[in-house]
Amino acid sequence: MTYVSFPASRKKDFTAIGRLCIDLNANEINRPMEETMTFTKYVGGSPANITIGMSRLGMETAFIGKIAGDQMGRFIQSYLEKNGIDTSNVVTDNTGAVTGLAFTEIKSPTDCSILMYRDNVADLLLQASEVQEQLIADSKVLLISGTALAQSPSREAVIQALTYAKKHSTIIVFDLDYRPYTWTSDEETAVYYNLAAEKCDIILGTREEFDMMETFENNPDHNDQVTAQKWFDFSAKIVIIKHGKEGSIAYTREGLSHRANSYPARVVKTFGAGDSYAAGFLYGLMQGWTIERSMSYGSAAASIVISSHSCSDAMPTVEQVDDYIERCNRGEIVPS
Ligand SMILES: Nc1ncnc2c1ncn2[C@@H]1O[C@H](COP(=O)(O)OP(=O)(O)O)[C@@H](O)[C@H]1O
Ligand SMILES: O=C(O)C[C@@H](O)[C@H](O)C(=O)COP(=O)(O)O
């Protein structure tokens, strides 16, 4: 059964809009930030990570965003290009804005947190007039991420991108990617997230992210089906609710639900799971696979990334995901 019909014969499989940042991941793992002395620099930002993941899986990809006009911005641009991502709609800021930094603290494989530096960041300065309609018209999928809705003018840029995607029947994926520090109030967050979600074909988020969107609603038991059902009255065809190590559940407009278990992992850190899951899942769906197989593929990709030090740089190829699944099936990967 086909749940989502991707447009045929477009130049790009996948385009994302949103933040391009830097992750500084602690080298001394299993220590608090206060005692961490060195970090390794990687390209970061959830939509950037997903795009890198899609590119590693062999998809034709592009990015719409804004980078700082400095060494960090150039590092990001060059990394995207080395990964085969079209950067023709990556705009360079000329106002002196900086690159967002995410310092990651890895206290233990299950206790990880992120310290964000996001004052005057270039990614939130993308303007609606800078979004290229033709690129969205040429893409099968547009992925938006919630953080880009947090402030103007990036908020208007995303809404304009949604308008172009609707006009050209480009499939819209919403990765909720809720980062509280970028928002000023729960009410503002819920209102903008809900407005955007109404236009989206596929919505992916954690239980906690959907809870935030339900600020004005009545779902006292945090029931996944109640959460998903609402979106089928709008544009959604698939809603996925992720539950960390417990796996994920997908609901479809036809009233079906599918569960996916997580794969075993020798966890180094937990962040990056959602981004790699999204890339693996969307790749599978775009190959015409079943939802179950696509979710399982995303789960395997997630296990690979959380078993690695980075998010972006660890995004796996098809061969790596296939190999990981085979090794798990042979019982060769034992969780840490
Ligand atoms: N500790 C873990 N062990 C194995 N797989 C995991 C673990 N944590 C997350 N995953 C996988 O990654 C997917 C997404 O993780 P989740 O933590 O729910 O999202 P996010 O990273 O967006 O918060 C899960 O559905 C699961 O397949
Ligand atoms: O999104 C960011 O700005 C930071 C990411 O690059 C980071 O590595 C991360 O937190 C990934 O998010 P997740 O996949 O939702 O765990």
UniProtKB/TrEMBL annotation:
What pathway is it annotated to? Answer: Polyol metabolism; myo-inositol degradation into acetyl-CoA; acetyl-CoA from myo-inositol: step 5/7
Q: What is its EC number?
A: 2.7.1.92
| Residues annotated as signal peptide | none
Q: Which reaction does it catalyse?
A: 5-dehydro-2-deoxy-D-gluconate + ATP = 6-phospho-5-dehydro-2-deoxy-D-gluconate + ADP + H(+)
Keywords, A to Z, come to: ATP-binding, Kinase, Nucleotide-binding, Transferase
Carbohydrate kinase PfkB domain: which residues? Answer: 14-317
PROSITE patterns named in the record: PFKB_KINASES_2
Per its UniProt record, what InterPro entries does this chain match?
Carboh/pur_kinase_PfkB_CS, DKG_kinase_firmi, Myo_inos_IolC, Myo_inos_IolC-like_sf, PfkB_Carbo_kinase, PfkB_dom, Ribokinase-like
Annotated GO MF terms:
5-dehydro-2-deoxygluconokinase activity; ATP binding
Q: Which domain of life is it from?
A: Bacteria
Function, in words: Catalyzes the phosphorylation of 5-dehydro-2-deoxy-D-gluconate (2-deoxy-5-keto-D-gluconate or DKG) to 6-phospho-5-dehydro-2-deoxy-D-gluconate (DKGP).
Stated name of the protein: 5-dehydro-2-deoxygluconokinase
The organism encoding this protein is: Paenibacillus amylolyticus
Q: Which gene encodes it?
A: iolC
